[in-house]
Every structure is written in C-alpha cells, then in structure tokens.
Write a structure and sequence with these properties.
Blueprint: H1 2-32, H2 38-74, H3 79-106, H4 114-120, H5 122-137
Helix pairs in contact: 1-2, 1-3, 1-4, 2-3, 3-5
Amino acid sequence: MYEWIKAFHVLAVISWMAGMLYLPRLMVYHAESQKGSIQSETFKIMERRLLKGIINPAMIVTWVLGLYLAWSAFDFKGGWLHGKILLVLILSGIHGYLAGRVRDFANDRNTKSSRFYRIMNEVPAVLMVGIVILVIVKPF
C-alpha cells in the first residue's frame, strides 16, 4: 500500500506545483489588464477555478498523504524530513498569500504590480528545488 500512497502523493505534489507556478503568471497578466475589462474578468474566472479546482485540493491531498508517509515510513525522524516539512510549510504560506491575492483581484483591489507577481512566480520554484533535493539526496 505504501507505493500507492506515495504515487498519489507525488501526483498531488505535481498538480499543486503546476498550479503554484501558473497562478502568479496569470496574476502578472491580470495586473497589466484594465479593471473591468473583458481580460480582467476572464483572469478572475481562471484564477478562481485554478485555485479552487486544482491548487487547493492538490495541497490538501499532498499534506494528508505526505504526513501519513512521514509517520508510517520515517516516524517523523530525519533532519532532511524536518527541512522538507519546513519548506512545505513555507510553500503553504505562499499558497495562502496567493489565495488572498485572488480575492483582491476578484474585488478589483489589487495593489501589486506585474513585476511583483513576476518575482512571486519564482518563489514556489525555488522552494520546489529545495524540497526535491532534500527528498532525493537526504543531505542530513
């Protein structure tokens, strides 16, 4: 059963990361569009559906299966595991932050520039690199 749970965990991680890499990119374009325009309204729909239909469920499955794997396979032991959990907590915080920005865009209250979202687009990627290195290399 371990291999099946691990497989579904990896699928959930891939889905979560795909959304976390795409959402800030949508926000780059949304920040450049005029409030009330057809483009802006389209981005609102895309951001909401991406967040609620893919990113949120994938994060939940990632956490549930990941915690089960950390407990059943590693008994929550290992420096690499603690480091990974810390980075996933930070990624979850970024997720929450981006969810707040989706709400701001939905209410036409965005105050951030497209440049800000270009920078935010890189944060999940950097965290992903750290997480993968910790999981595969287990440096400590």
